[in-house]
Amino acid sequence: MKNILLLPGDGIGPEIMAEAEKVLHLLQEQAGLAVALDYADLGGCAVDASGEPYPEATRAKARAADAVLLACVGGPKWDNLPRAQRPETGLLAIRADLGLFANLRPAHVMDALIDRSALKAERVRGLDILIVRELTGGIYFGQPRGIETNAAGEREGYNTLRYSESEVRRIARVAFEAARGRQKRLCSIDKMNVLESSQLWRETVAAVAADYPDVALTHMLVDNAAMQLVRDPRQFDVIVTGNLFGDILSDEASMLTGSIGLLPSASLRDDGVGLFEPVHGSAPDIAGQGSANPYAMLLSLAMLLRHSLQEESLAWLLENAVKESISQGYRSADIVADGQQAYSTTAIGDAVCREMEAALARSV
Ligand code: IPM
Ligand code: MN
After folding, report:
1. Quick check: 285 pLDDT over 90?
2. Which of 31, 48, 55, 82 could join 27 in a cystine, given CB atoms 3.0 to 4.6 angstroms apart?
């Protein structure tokens, strides 16, 4: 029996998590998935309940879990709190606490949604990129950091971008391994023309490449990469990059697929324990309306099945049910074309469950 911790979080989080729970229950009842589900607070809801965005009770459950499924955190209600109490601080804290250094963010253009891409169809047809983002280092966590008053009496904010060789090596290995299972092309993205940390990053990734002679490694500066992602995104197979560049480039890549509401992510460490969450935020503007797109949440659950539970065939079943539902026209408001009907969060979750039930019935 594996333990899965569910963190519905804030904003649209509880609505999209409810659809993931439907799928989990279906898999428990109809596919023999042996998992125990538990719940905890993270983010703004945790601040409201206990004053902290990553409270001790959540930490204890997260440390004991085989996998964590998170919806999303944050919202205007908590924006003016001190940094230690911000919902985002809770998210960064759970990533660091669990040691989840490898963030996988696949961006894949589905044929049925090619009209929704921000780029012309001929540039993105068949697009399939995997961004491997370093998640527990870099400028997000570097010390010293702060806001202080300088000698001239002016306030000054500062952060530190720091990467050690071992941090770069381990994320590079994850990316090379992923490339091995795909088209065997890896592009490492940095800013080595300006930053020493990037110079070390590039040297270190190049050294790891010696262990992967079957993978073609290239390097690209981040400003050029941002341009190439919209000029000719299909040149990329796997991308590996640091925490901040990966954050920015993954949002950019989401627009190639049509909506950030479609992108899942997996945050992993070496033993397979992981936290799985959509790339998107908590969308407070549409929270409570039942109109949120649950597909990224469901695809994140598929990544959980694959990476933490080694249930590849169930992961595939869920991904396929998502594709089928989208092909049948079950689109949320963020991905409808002019004149098309937008379906509610629950109607989409139900459609995915029907697809899965039908596929399970066919397979017995
Ligand atoms: C993401 C988010 C987070 C990040 C925020 C909410 C802290 O933007 O997962 O991409 O910057 O990592
Ligand atoms: Mn982000």
Report:
1. yes
2. 31
